[in-house]
Amino acid sequence: MPVWVAATLLAGLFQTWRTALQQRLRGQMSVNAAAVVRYLYGVPVGVLLVALYLALVGGSLSAPTGMYLLYCALGGLGQIIGTNLLIMSFAQRGFAVGTAYSKTEAVQAALIALVFLGEGFGALAWLGIAVSVGGTLYLSLAGRVSSLREAAAATRQPSALYGLGAGLAFALCAIAIRAATAELDGPDATLRALETLVVINAMQTLMQGSWLAAREPASVPMLFRSWRSSAQVGALSALGSACWFTGFAHAPVALVRAVGQVEILFTLLFSRFFLKERMKRSDVAGALVVVSGVVLVLLGR
């Protein structure tokens, strides 16, 4: 199995796990504070990952350039903006719609990468991207719209617009991360990805942490009082990001994000086996469509 495929599958698993744990934090602190813990506690985990990689695999760190740091800042800011837009879509009472349209990120990333990075791939991979995104949309909207007219009307909801904006921000974030890893001169793409993880998490801690200190100073002590649960979220976030960044360093962004749609399968499995919720036929059908799309992406790679 290619490195980028394994890394992307693990990224989906870690992200689903982190999201489940982060829901607990949202009952203890504000949305901004819950977001900051991902980066704050992710930095030491990222440093540990780099140290372990150097000890086990070897290699040397690359010297950052000004352009590299710019790409890192843009990638980190893009993730923060995308997350905030997604939360704004939830505030419009459109959790499913907002989430669904944010998942168009794979298609948006494919088009942007084609124009600005020259990343092209075969027709089968394009078809796989479309199928996997379509399956995700179906899973998110099944039972909520009953016709194409209702589906079209849903795209005009504020939650859908915020979701599309979130997808665009996440797509730009992924492309900036890929550009950043390519900017480093080291020969090991995985090590470059891990280095970039540490730099971006540090920048995000500074960016969103400064915002939190200025706008919600009362929330800052909670970041440290909740260190037990916050550290778990930060660790899973760092592991997930390490896998995403590794995928971006080894393969085109659009393909990584298309395969990353399997995240929704992990969500369904978590719901079924841990929360003991019953899966509907539409869930099974949508999951099969997502898997079919991922297979087409891999075949067309």
Automatic annotation (TrEMBL):
<protein>
    <submittedName>
        <fullName>Drug/metabolite transporter (DMT)-like permease</fullName>
    </submittedName>
</protein>
<feature type="transmembrane region" description="Helical">
    <location>
        <begin position="258"/>
        <end position="275"/>
    </location>
</feature>
<feature type="transmembrane region" description="Helical">
    <location>
        <begin position="282"/>
        <end position="300"/>
    </location>
</feature>
<dbReference type="Pfam" id="PF00892">
    <property type="entry name" value="EamA"/>
</dbReference>
<feature type="transmembrane region" description="Helical">
    <location>
        <begin position="111"/>
        <end position="139"/>
    </location>
</feature>
<feature type="transmembrane region" description="Helical">
    <location>
        <begin position="68"/>
        <end position="91"/>
    </location>
</feature>
<feature type="domain" description="EamA">
    <location>
        <begin position="160"/>
        <end position="298"/>
    </location>
</feature>
<keyword id="KW-0472">Membrane</keyword>
<dbReference type="GO" id="GO:0016020">
    <property type="term" value="C:membrane"/>
</dbReference>
<dbReference type="InterPro" id="IPR000620">
    <property type="entry name" value="EamA_dom"/>
</dbReference>
<keyword id="KW-0812">Transmembrane</keyword>
<keyword id="KW-1133">Transmembrane helix</keyword>
<feature type="transmembrane region" description="Helical">
    <location>
        <begin position="38"/>
        <end position="56"/>
    </location>
</feature>
<feature type="transmembrane region" description="Helical">
    <location>
        <begin position="160"/>
        <end position="181"/>
    </location>
</feature>
<dbReference type="InterPro" id="IPR037185">
    <property type="entry name" value="EmrE-like"/>
</dbReference>
